[in-house]
From TrEMBL:
PANTHER family associated with the record: MECHANOSENSITIVE CHANNEL MSCK (PTHR30347:SF1), POTASSIUM CHANNEL RELATED (PTHR30347)
Keywords annotated in UniProt: Cell membrane, Membrane, Transmembrane, Transmembrane helix
GO MF annotations, alphabetized: mechanosensitive monoatomic ion channel activity
Major place of residence: membrane
InterPro entries: LSM_dom_sf, MS_channel_C, MscS-like_channel, MscS_beta-dom_sf, MscS_channel_2nd, MscS_channel_C_sf, MscS_channel_CS, MscS_channel_TM-2
GO annotations of cellular component type: plasma membrane
Location relative to the cell: Cell membrane
Family membership: Belongs to the MscS (TC 1.A.23) family.
Name listed for the protein in its UniProt record: Mechanosensitive ion channel
Membrane-related topology note: Multi-pass membrane protein
Occurrences of domain Mechanosensitive ion channel MscS (ranges): 653-720
Membrane-spanning ranges: 287-308, 329-349, 355-373, 385-404, 410-427, 447-464, 470-488, 524-547, 567-590, 611-631, 637-659
Annotated ranges, domain Mechanosensitive ion channel MscS C-terminal: 727-810
Length: 839
């Protein structure tokens, strides 16, 4: 019944939405109105019922049938559920409040940027231009995000609109029930469906109009921001092209050739006012950045204090203090170290921030370093450091000036001279070697001197803008180099505290050797620090964008070898992913494996399953390297094919060892920490590798055994299920000794020995009557095979003492000597004079 009614829905909805008449009415508009002509001014349930009744009389358009009742029931249920779902989505609405509230802030930012651009003089500061560019970039990202959100909303509304009007194209709605009772029930259902359709359609149109207007507002601002951004790019290009052109008057001609005769303090006041407004707007847009850095500072501080507290709890006061005194920075200055960590990382990673934010980061970093250096540096060196901080503050203030003044020019001259003298003083300061290695500090100081001298020359030649960049770069690069050097030490100390705080725990950190970690990670952190310092230098010289674009173009430009296309970036990504997977595999082996210094009886719980994880990491790394680098996966089959040929010609042993390693991982005949014997070699398993395994021999050597030998040769595992071991030795006593007494003396040597097991009990057996002794064989068990040698030594010493006290002889070997012949001259030599006796 309901299904037939639903087939009429498109025609009825069309008449309601258009509010017009059907095609038959257009043909008879001059005649008297027929029953098939419907004009609905007000949509209500009564009118809808009349319209349905009128349309039902037109047999050319509507078919009466009772054969499709089941289909009509399903169809009307589906449409009702669909409209309910769509209406629910429309009622929840689309969250555009943030966009609407953000538009005034965008307009304020644009107005400020336009004011800054309009106030740029003939000698603009590149920092001011760059700050405008940064703000425009932030606005561009924000507007682009808004556009993406609005486009997704609009697509959803269009989809809803298409879904609604798909009801019109359903030809099945032309059927209605023929039976009067079904027809009456049908009227109620179809009336509710039509009213629901109209409500959904109206709400959807309202949302489409609202989203469309908001899209238009965002698009207009995005276009304006893009135009201003291109203008800033053009200004930066012009500044780079004219970087070494004279932009101000010479120092010796203050009243001639005056390009921009402005007073210093008014320029300073307006510059600070503008920078404050820029900073406020930037914080409004990018406040999550501040939250992230604050969260990092809180987490790092908690981590440090937590480890310090655990060290003090796990050790006595004297021991804990001794351990903590090995940390030169974190234990003494935890808050200052946290500030150094956050500000240094921010200085390296903050590529698109306003100059004021960057300078605040520099100054906070310098203040934190001052608290640390106050106790670590000598008084002379610390005074030099304070002078450098003063220079940093003056150059930071100078970078905010939007116009060049005559006083600023003289200040740059004095700053360059002072920096040069200060650099030479640092170069001769021998105390620097106690703070940092000379191979690190001397290049930094030499670069500081060279850049300062270059700034001095540029000031004299009236290249004031470039001189400001060089002078600021000299002092900032030096301070940040010291900060990065300190940061590496802070991170190493943080790892040290983590290891020391968890040595007595059951976590994998208890297996770690700090010296090993320091040796492996120090070089890596130093490389990262050098890269970060180079990034800071490039950014301070405003070469970062140019270098980044040049490198990106070089890496992304396509090349061709034969029929294969490639880019250097894909090669680097491929190598990098392989390297990262290899390092990750080694790191897993180190952290969850054995470091070679596990305590006696401590067996690694992760076992040989570690090998499977390492293989999975390496295999995943290879597949990810192919996918990330853009190399077609079908090329992998070529590599596998080439590998198969290599296996056939000379890689049988390699593959054999690889497969043997997998067998070891599944079968687990040995695990890390087991004491094994393979052939003539014995030792403790240190690592089960992919191709070979390592064991630590008792003599201190490290033996590398191919996995194939562990599978093919006879393998003795002393600790497969437990660490007990039977110890055997022989002892002989002289003939005539009391056998029972000897047996009792030997057994008494095992009494009250904690290393010797009482079950099985020691066994003493008389095994033979030797040439010169009665021989006994002694068996006893020890709980830990590592103590077998010590236990046997102590037992033998006790038996020897007891036998001596009892007067029982431990005989020497006895032999009978038979002399068959001897030289007569030798006999005469040994005879006594005058006798035949031999002496």
């Amino acid at each position: 019944m309901f299904t037939k009614a639903t087939w009429l829905l498109p025609i009825i909805i069309l008449s309601i939405i258009t509010g017009g008449s059907f095609h038959a009415q257009a043909q008879r508009k001059k005649q008297k109105a027929k029953v098939d002509t419907i004009h609905m001014v007000t949509i209500d349930s009564a009118t809808i019922r009349k319209n349905i009744a009128a349309l039902a009389k037109d047999s050319n358009r509507i078919k009466k049938s009772d054969t499709s009742v089941a289909i009509l029931i399903n169809r009307i249920e589906d449409y009702t559920l669909m409209l309910n779902e769509v209406m629910s989505s429309l009622r929840r609405g689309f969250d555009t409040v943030g966009i609407s509230n953000g538009l005034p802030m965008t307009d304020t930012s644009l107005a400020l940027i336009k004011y800054n651009i309009a106030s740029l003089g003939r000698t603009p500061n590149i920092n001011d231009i760059y700050t405008n560019k940064v703000m425009l970039e932030q606005l561009q990202r924000k507007l682009d995000s808004w556009q993406s959100t609005l486009f997704s909303y609009y697509d959803k509304l269009v989809g809803i609109n298409d879904t609604i009007y798909s009801l019109r194209r359903d030809s099945a709605m032309r059927n209605i029930p023929a039976e009067n009772e079904l027809y009456g029930f049908y009227l109620g259902q179809i009336t509710n469906l039509i009213l629901k359709f109209h409500a959904v359609d109206s709400a959807n149109k309202v949302n489409l109009i609202r989203i469309g207007l908001l899209q238009n507002k965002v698009a207009n601002r995005y276009i304006e921001v893009s135009n201003l951004y291109e203008d800033m790019d053009y200004r930066l290009e012009q500044h780079s092209a004219n970087m070494f052109a004279r932009d101000y008057r010479y120092l010796w001609r203050p009243h001639r050739d005056s390009i921009n005769p402005l007073d210093f303090f008014p320029v300073l006041k307006s510059s600070l006012h503008k920078s404050g407004k820029v900073m406020g707007i930037f914080f409004t847009i990018q406040w999550p950045v501040f939250f992230v850095w604050l969260l990092l500072a809180v987490l790092f501080t908690w981590w440090v204090y937590h480890n310090i507290r655990r060290i003090k709890q796990n050790h006595t006061e004297e021991e804990g203090e001794t351990i903590l005194q090995h940390t030169q920075y974190l234990y003494r200055f935890p808050i200052a170290c946290t500030v150094v960590l956050v500000t240094t990382l921010s200085a390296v990673l903050s590529i698109r921030y306003p100059i004021l934010f960057t300078e605040i980061t520099w100054l906070l970093n310098a203040i934190a370093l001052t608290f640390i250096f106050r106790r670590l540096l000598s008084p002379t060196l610390f005074r030099t450091w304070l002078l450098m901080i003063g220079l940093l503050f003056l150059y930071c203030l100078n970078n905010l000036l939007i116009e060049v003044t005559y006083a600023e020019q003289w200040g740059l001259l004095a700053g360059a001279i002072f920096s040069t003298v200060l650099g030479y003083r640092l170069l001769k300061e021998t105390a620097l070697s106690t703070f940092a290695p000379s191979r690190f500090i001397r290049p930094v100081v030499k670069l500081f001197i060279a850049t300062s001298i270059f700034s001095l020359v540029l000031v004299i030649l009236a290249r004031v803008g470039t001189a400001k960049i060089m002078g600021s770069s000299a002092i900032v690069n030096t301070v940040m180099a010291l900060s990065l050097f300190t940061l590496v030490k802070i991170l190493m100390e943080a790892v040290y505290l983590q290891v020391e705080a968890n040595k007595d725990s059951s976590t994998f950190i208890s297996f770690m050797d700090y010296q090993d970690v320091q040796r492996k990670s120090k070089t890596f952190l130093a490389i990262l620090a050098v890269v970060g310092w180079l990034i800071i230098i490039a950014r301070n010289l405003y070469l970062y964008d140019a270098i980044h674009e040049s490198i990106s173009d070089f890496l992304s430009s396509p090349h061709q070898i034969g029929n294969s296309d490639f880019t250097f970036s894909s090669i680097i990504i491929f190598i990098l992913v392989i390297w990262v997977s290899t390092v990750a595999s080694q790191l897993i082996a180190y952290m969850f494996g054995s470091t070679g210094q596990t305590t006696s009886g401590k067996k690694n719980k992760f076992g040989s399953a570690l090998l499977l994880l390492r293989l999975a990491v390496l295999a995943g790394g290879v597949l990810l390297a192919f996918a990330a680098s853009g190399i077609p996966m079908d090329k992998l089959t070529i590599v596998i094919g080439a590998l198969g040929v290599g296996i056939g010609f000379g890689l049988q042993n390699v593959v054999n060892n690889l497969v043997s390693g997998i067998i070891l991982a599944f079968e687990k005949p040995i695990e890390v920490g087991d004491v094994i014997e393979v052939g003539s070699r014995s030792g403790t398993v240190k690592e089960i590798g992919i191709r070979s395994s390592k064991i630590n021999a008792p003599d201190g050597s490290e033996v590398i055994i191919p996995n194939g030998d562990l599978i093919s040769q006879q393998l003795i595992n002393w600790t497969r299920t437990n660490r007990t071991r039977r110890v055997t030795f022989l002892i002989g006593v002289g003939y005539g000794s009391d056998v029972k007494q000897v047996t009792d003396i030997i057994k008494s040597a095992f009494t009250d020995r904690k290393d010797v097991l009482t079950l099985p009990a020691p066994v003493v057996q008389l095994i033979e009557f030797g040439d010169n002794a009665v021989n006994f064989r002694v068996y006893f068990w020890v709980g830990d095979l590592d103590n077998a040698g010590t236990a046997m030594s102590e037992v033998l010493a006790t038996i020897y003492t007891a036998l001596n006290n009892a007067g029982i002889e431990l005989p020497y070997p006895q032999r009978d000597l038979h002399i068959r012949s001897i030289d007569e001259l030798l006999m005469k030599k040994w005879e006594k004079p005058g006798t035949d006796e031999v002496v």
